[in-house]
Amino acid sequence: MNDKGIVYVVEDDAAVRDSTVLYLIHKGWSVSAFETAESFLAEADRNTLGCVLLDIRMPGMSGLELQTVMNQQAFTLPIIFLTGHADVEQAVTALKCGAFDFLEKPYDHKDLHTKLIDAIDAHRDRRVSEADRMLVETRIATLTQREQEVMRLMVRGLASKLIARELDISHRTVDVHRSNIMRKLEYSSLAELTAFLAKGGGLRY
Amino acid sequence: MASSVALLETVILLVIGTGWLLIAWRHRTVVSRQLCVATALTLIVTQLVAILVGDTDSNSGLLLAAGIALGAGCSAWAIYCLADALWPMRMGGQTASLMVDDLVDTDRVRDPEGKLELLLESLPVGIAYLGRDLHYQNSNGTYREWFSRDGTSTLDKHMRLVQGDELFEESLPAIECAMQGETVVYEEILHDDQQQPRHVQTTIVPHCSPDADVRGLFILSQDISDQKRQVDRLARSLKYLGSAMNGLDSALVVLDGEARIRSANTAWGRFTAINRDSNDAYVNHYEELRTLYGSRSGSDFCNTVDEIVQFAKGQREPVSAEIRITRANEDRWYAITCSVFLNEEERYVLVSHEDITARLRMSRELNERNMALAQTARLSSVGELAATIAHELNQPLTALSNYGAIVLDMVESSIKPEDAIKSNLEKMLRESRRAGAIVHRINNFVRQQPNEKLPVNVEHIISEVLDSLADLAVETDTVITTSFCCPETTVKVDKSQLGQVVYNLVNNAIEAQAGQAETATVDVEVSALANGKDLQVCITDNGSGLSQDIGQTVFDPFKSGKSSGLGLGLAICRSIIEDHGGRIWHQNDTRQRCQFCFALPLHRDIQAA
């Protein structure tokens, strides 16, 4: 299993790209390098764990433009911008737009390591919660309209009798729905169900 | 019988009287006319009275007596007139003879002397003869018209009487001089009541006897009013011109063919005055300026003085120079120019020394202000420059630190892979050279190198540059073609600067085509423009043309379309071409290919032209 994830290097300068790749490989990272933002968008695998080392100044599509496109396409790889001394303004903009961090060239290699690790950890967390949310959504999708209504009231802590009154149905019918919900969502207790929904940001329900 | 005799007598007497009247009419001079009229009237009146009375017989004695008395009275008057007329005849021989002629002047125009006299009388110059006693003995009509106060005869009148006291006193010194036997010329102004004053030039020539005694004076007077007016006008315009010249701030001086100073204006006095308040430096020869100012100015001025002297002597072309003179501890700057003019076929040189100190100061201030403005404008791009330089230098530095980190790691490890270390170190060297090159380029841009413009053939320069790019062309599979037009034509340029322009443009063209599918080509075309003044060089590549929106901003500094580069290449090209009086532009050719062109003014040899 590839725990460390892949570092995507997007850098137009050949020497910088080459040295960065060599260094990261030397340090045991998996690296994938691209000369332009366009080729990265076209070729990068969107499902892998990792992060992007992105040069902020590039001919053609710039680093900031690439960030915008990634946000639009829900491309969640965290971005570490590589900036020059005078690009502070751009770096601030990038952070506001959700960049993970930035590094000023020429960077300290310890900093680079820390930030790569932090970024990939963040990506990993984001990917797990993403997976959970997907799971919750999938299971909830199996419930009928009435069952989802009942579940929402259950999570709010209402007793069966109150739920029956709220939905203007019989007490017995509510009990049938309850057992169906627990079976479909594969949980045995209400506490477990509540925790599960919370994990997927399911408090919406 | 008696009455018929009386009637006949009356008729005969009337005829005789009428005859006398006819004679009087024919006579011109006053005296003889008076005489004739008197006689005629005596006869006619007597007889008319007799006829009117009608009684020729009875009263004839009384009437005859009355007629005779009247006739006698008239005759006495007539005799007096005759005596008056004849008096001068006894006084002077010449006039007397003239007066005798006068009595028969009907024939005068026919004889030569008479013609001459008539001529003298009517000449538009005043002629007179004055005796020793200053009495006029003769004068013509013009003289009398001008000088005689009452316009009547001047004959035998004293000059004072004729001309009046004032005028006479004025001419007295001249007359006294002429009486000593000298010819005198003088001018006098005659005032007429109605007309403008008349300027008269009078020449008095003494009439001398063989033993040099002055017998009289010939006087000739000419009207010179017109000449006088013209001279006045000329004098006035000269005066104005002189005032204008003197009013000029430029010191003007006219030199002759030997560089001697012939004329100068007031400013020249100030120019040659050592001290501000003394105008006493008299310079006779232009060369003297060298000793006058040699110590107060640079050797420039001495050279200029030499050159102007040579120019005055016709030994060299006109000179124009700007020189500095220290005067009263103050530096003054002068622009010296000179030109030739001919005056009555003689060659003169006008040298102008214009004080340009104030103008120089103004232009210097203006210059400084412009510099300050340009500096402000430049400051705004300094930020841009800093960012560009930082980014540009950060690239090799980042690469260096990456390679360095790898090498350090490898050295610290137990394995120490020599090959990998070596290759990384080589890459480090390469990156440090790259950083050096960037610094060098910036340095070149910031520091304007002095240039030396010489007439050279542009096609030679292009060939040399293309030779140096041959390796790169092979590496990148680029086909470079040239089309030259003018192997003999020269353009005045700095060879290395123009070489840099060509290098940048061709190098750009090669780089722009890197990685494109089509064949990379660069066409370098030299052509003479139709205006006959410019030489055009176009560099066309096979890449797609730039969009027209970019327009001429491609020549602005820090506008780079490449992954690396400061965006200075084209800016440098533009600054060099414009410095050479040319222009550079970008366009897409007919096949929408990218084309960069520049035009430079052809060098023309002045002698050849």
Attribute tags:
heterodimer, A: 205 residues, alpha/beta, Rossmann fold, Arc Repressor Mutant, subunit A, five-stranded parallel β-sheet, 5 strands, B: 609 residues, alpha+beta, Beta-Lactamase, 5 domains, 17 strands, 50% helix
Sheet with most strands: strand arrangement of chain A: 2-1-3-4-5
Quickly count the domains of chain A. Answer: 2
Shape of chain A: elongated
Secondary-structure arrangement, i.e. CATH architecture of the largest domain in chain A: 3-Layer(aba) Sandwich
The CATH superfamily name of the largest domain in chain A is Response regulator
Q: Tell me the total number of β-strands of chain B.
A: 17
State the oligomer: heterodimer
Radius of gyration of chain B: 55 Å
Question: What order do the helices and strands of chain A follow?
Answer: EHEHEHEHEHHHHH
Beta-strand percentage of chain B?
15-25%
User: What summary fits the major beta sheet of chain A?
Assistant: 5 strands, parallel
List the total number of helices of chain A: 9
What is the strand tally of chain A? Answer: 5
Mean pLDDT level of chain B: 78
Which CATH class of the largest domain in chain A is shown? Alpha Beta
Major protein interface: A-B, 23 and 29 residues
What Rg of chain A, in angstroms, do the CA atoms define? 24 Å
| Number of helices, where a helix is a run of at least 4 consecutive DSSP H or I residues of chain B | 18
CATH topology of the largest domain in chain A: Rossmann fold
